[in-house]
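Structure (tokenized):
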């Protein structure tokens, strides 16, 4: 599975596309079956590891993705969050940059990687790597962390982020710079502890929030800097309709990009599919949460036909998604190749 995943990210031929989730895999069904629970699994390394492995062992995903939230970096920089619940992740309650002059106070703490959230991730990485080794599992271990635009949005607050990208772009770039440096260093730390791949979650850089004309000048240079520094397999996740920025994303150095269902995969494949691995993009809400397995299978087969190289939900899986629909994603991939006479 790791070889298939690696070859797909590197745009090489595979026997069949991998199927996994590169975003969020915690569901109430998997919690119940493993004796784990949110919000404990957000920060407890053992619960995080046990629930993450369930996506592979029970749902059949060909990858083990963790964690289930992304507040570890922002909390270390002074952001505050709610605790989260059984079926919802924490939400942000406060941020340190109330005005422009506060940006000058944002510095990388000397003990950043000793913070509780990051230490939990490091410990969970070690636990997962040991379990994969002990059990002989060949699935890729995929860690998710925030990217520079998401970091800036958390530290400055969404309203400031939206205003400053137009009125004070140079100031906002200072936050991007810090976020990019931390993301690259943190990714390498996770690689060193056993992660096979790191996916950078950076939806705030997408057209739904960030003006596309500014992406190439304000975001792309930081992506290139990050990917030049990252030591392992890397991916980017972008929520919303990222169609307008597919070209610069393909130039960013990321091996793969996870795209929401708002993006027409056939168009993306035609435009940049020979330059970056397309990942997605079955709807986690309209199809995986709300529909029957047959509908999930139909959508998944369309994604393969349209050109995804890794079949996955378009974004994080909703906690109440039925287990049968998770399994349907894997079954659809196998059925597709049988129906095409390729297996």
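Design, position by position:
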């Amino acid at each position: 599975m790791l070889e298939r995943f690696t070859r797909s990210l590197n745009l090489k031929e595979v026997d069949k596309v991998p199927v996994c989730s590169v975003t969020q895999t915690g569901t109430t069904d998997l919690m119940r079956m493993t004796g784990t629970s949110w919000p404990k699994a957000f920060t407890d390394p053992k619960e995080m590891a046990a629930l993450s492995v369930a996506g592979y062992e029970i749902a059949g995903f060909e990858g083990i993705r963790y964690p289930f939230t992304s507040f570890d970096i922002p909390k270390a920089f002074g952001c505050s969050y709610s605790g989260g619940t059984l079926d919802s992740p924490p939400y942000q309650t406060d941020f340190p940059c109330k005005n422009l002059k506060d940006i000058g106070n944002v510095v990388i703490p000397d003990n950043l990687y000793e913070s509780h959230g990051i230490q939990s991730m490091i410990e969970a990485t070690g636990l997962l790597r040991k379990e994969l080794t002990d059990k002989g599992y060949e699935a890729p271990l995929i860690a998710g962390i925030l990217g520079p635009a998401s970091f800036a949005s958390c530290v400055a607050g969404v309203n400031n982020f939206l205003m400053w990208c137009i009125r004070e772009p140079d100031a906002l770039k200072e936050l991007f710079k810090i976020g990019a440096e931390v993301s690259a260093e943190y990714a390498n730390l996770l690689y060193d502890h056993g992660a096979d791949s790191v996916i950078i979650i950076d939806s705030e850089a997408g057209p739904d929030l960030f003006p596309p004309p500014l992406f190439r000048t304000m975001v792309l240079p930081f992506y290139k800097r990050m990917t030049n520094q990252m030591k392992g397999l890397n991916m980017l996740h972008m929520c919303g309709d990222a169609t307008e920025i597919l070209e610069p994303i393909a130039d960013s150095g990321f091996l793969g990009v996870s795209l929401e269902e708002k993006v027409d995969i056939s168009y993306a494949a035609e435009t940049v599919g020979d330059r970056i691995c397309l990942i997605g993009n079955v709807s986690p809400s309209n199809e995986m949460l709300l529909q029957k397995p047959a509908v999930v299978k139909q959508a998944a087969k369309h994604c393969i036909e349209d050109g995804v190289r890794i079949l996955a939900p378009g974004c994080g899986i909703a906690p109440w998604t039925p287990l049968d629909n998770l399994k349907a994603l894997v079954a659809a991939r196998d059925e597709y190749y049988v129906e095409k006479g390729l297996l």
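Reviewer-requested clarification: The chain has one domain: 2-275. The chain has a mean pLDDT of 96.
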